[in-house]
Amino acid sequence: MGKHRGKKPIRGGARQPQSRDDKQNDWNAFVGTDKGNAGFEEYYKTQGIMPEADWEPFMGSLRKELPVTFRVTGSRAHAETINDIIKNTYVPNMQNVEFEGQKYDPPSQLSWYPGQLAWQVDAPKRVVRKTEPFKNFQRFLVGETEVGNLSRQEAVSMIPPLFLDVQPHHICLDMCAAPGSKTAQIIEALNPHHTASTGLLIANDSDYKRTHMLVHQTGRMPSRGLIVTNFDASLFPSIKLKGGKQLQFDRILADVPCSGDGTLRKNLEIWNKWGAADGNSLHTLQLRILERAMNMLKPGGRLVYSTCSFNPSEDEAVIAAALNGKPGKFHIVDVSAELPHLKRRSGMSSWKVGSQPAVKARQLVWYDTFEDYKEAIKKGEEKENDRGKGLPRTLWPPANAGELNLDRCMRLLPHDQNTGGFFVCVLEKKADATESNEDSASSSLKRPATSPPPASESKRPRDKSPAPNASAPATSTETTSAPTPAPQTSTKKDKRDLTFKEDPLSYVDPEHEEVKSIVERFNVQDSFPRNNLMVRNEYGDPLRTIYMTNEIVKEIIENNDYTRLRVVSAGVKCFARQDSSQRTEIRCKWRTPMDGILEVLPHVGEGVVISATLEELRVLLEDHYPPVDSFKDGEWKNIMQSRDMGCEIVKFEAGKLAGGELALPMYLPVWKAKMSLSLMIDKREKSILSLRTFGEDICKPPPPQKDFHKKPEGEVESVPVTEGEGEAGIALVAEVAQGDAVAENTEESVLNA
Ligand SMILES: C[S@@+](CC[C@H](N)C(=O)[O-])C[C@H]1O[C@@H](n2cnc3c(N)ncnc32)[C@H](O)[C@@H]1O
């Protein structure tokens, strides 16, 4: 008997304030409950998603705490160094941990993850909290996650981007991207050596607030080829390129909103709320998103569809309907030889449709065919919704299900390798599939007789975003291959979406005086893309922040209205104005924020990067504005004394010194004022850096606020910069204390190069 539930748990839907993936960087999240649901058991036993003998291990695994998993991020060489630190420093220290009479294993590498860069911690949270070796490791994890070297991510959630097979030149779309753990993986694949890739990733989410989580998350892994947009993915607009060409994608990830029952080990509230209707009601939205993805994919391109649900109505039924909507144009790729150590179950070619009709209250009713279901409606045993729509026909296996190679889909079951549950399907568009991105012949009109068109439109999860395309008519599955996004237009000529409130984007004249001052200060070479410096105002005015993009991002920004594309952010924040005064003694008033330092670095000329040791780092961390004279005599002090006021890029060399240890060299921005220096990272980052490097927080509290406004003769003025640029919520503070400019709380974190 199915259990009647109140609210639906929709992964990524508005009722769920935190999705599975949102908890990725919360190392302590845990909720308790009784871990049972008779409806769930009846539903999946009847579906036969696994042999009977697997049932007990499956349920047993679902009731166990999910191990913590994480992966090492960043460019390859860098990631390997961090991986070696875990392997050679931390793991040996956790060999013989005993707690309450029981022994616990150290973290282990996930055998199937490429380069062995992903790890699993099996020890339960209480052991991690209460034993010294695990506690140390936990501190390391928190610090490295903060600076972007590690990413906590559920093991199965790492799988879809791996099957996307992204190359640095690829044009990619992540349709339902927030909070961005898979987005980060795609960015890493686009920039494998931290070199600027020519590729593109558009990371999209329909929830406006969640797009800002996405911006934050990707700040840890900045990319010049990144655009964040805010759309209902099923209505994702076509994008124009130069000469009126349309953008098509090499790679698309459709990690769609789903009922999320594969996350039961983590999202314990699903035990109480689960119902068969959840999956049924999401099917149509999932299909519309997938069909839109298929239309935007290049011939020969690859598309990965994934859910964290076991439910065939969200999985195989969606794939089968989408394939039948485009007969002969797509096939499911056989990836059984890829990630050979990953245990997976084949997709199913037959499944059942269960309904929980309101008229029968809690009862789960099975219908063999769509016709049986219609019959039940006629008899009054089932109710259509008030628009005369019920369950769509596409929920049932089509007559040609056996010919679609659905067995090539993958279902990841929790007891196979102690993970959560997931479903992944890799689709390829045939090289000769000439259908254009704007194909007007709808998929459902082309369905073969074996696959009748979907019959219904279903609810889409409500989301709290300011209604991207709220005015667009709700389209049924039949019309999704040619969506007509309907922005709220003002006039025909000016197709602006007036509901969209982000600031405009424009490019700075490469000969602008401010650009020249940057070119001079950082002695940037010809390789520096001064044509690709973008700002967030209409006039190309470098007022507060300068972003760097690559060519393809520029082409998109320049050939499309930013409101119609609902662009939330683009490129990498590379320069932030540190001083807005007109004083001439500071010739370049820009600093390199942490997000962008690695993007600027390859272009700076000789003598710009200043080398320093941990001794200097110690002084810069202990004191907020150490006078240059306070540093010990030597090369560093001489160089700093000779420099003009402005931003310096300092390379702190790896090694052991001054009671600290750095495994990798680290590049940090330092502001040189008249008499003193200041490390340009915020308070929290300073503390984390101090803990990572010196094993304790050596940072003194900042001077009282009122001191900031003392302005000794001839020093930089305290001016919060507020000119009309975007970046809601980020106020650049160019403050003065004892004559020195300070940037507190303005930085994101990437501390290592
Ligand atoms: C499963 S989560 C995505 C997780 C993400 N791919 C990751 O790895 O971090 C689903 C996301 O879909 C978004 N979403 C829901 N309906 C959508 C729609 N119609 N179009 C685009 N995104 C949607 C939700 O806001 C949610 O962020």
Automatic annotation (TrEMBL):
InterPro entries hit by this protein: MeTrfase_RsmB-F_NOP2_cat, MeTrfase_RsmB-F_NOP2_dom, Pre-PUA_NSUN2, PUA_NSUN2, RCMT, RCMT_NCL1, RsmB/NOL1/NOP2-like_CS, SAM-dependent_MTases_sf
UniProt main location, coarse: nucleus
Subcellular localization(s) per the UniProt record: Nucleus
Region entry Disordered, spans: 1-27, 381-400, 436-507, 700-722
Key word Cell wall biogenesis/degradation present: no
Residue ranges, compositional bias (Basic residues): 1-10
Keywords from the named record: Methyltransferase, Nucleus, RNA-binding, S-adenosyl-L-methionine, Transferase, tRNA processing, tRNA-binding
Family to which the UniProt record says this protein belongs: Belongs to the class I-like SAM-binding methyltransferase superfamily. RsmB/NOP family.
Entry protein name: Multisite-specific tRNA:(Cytosine-C5)-methyltransferase
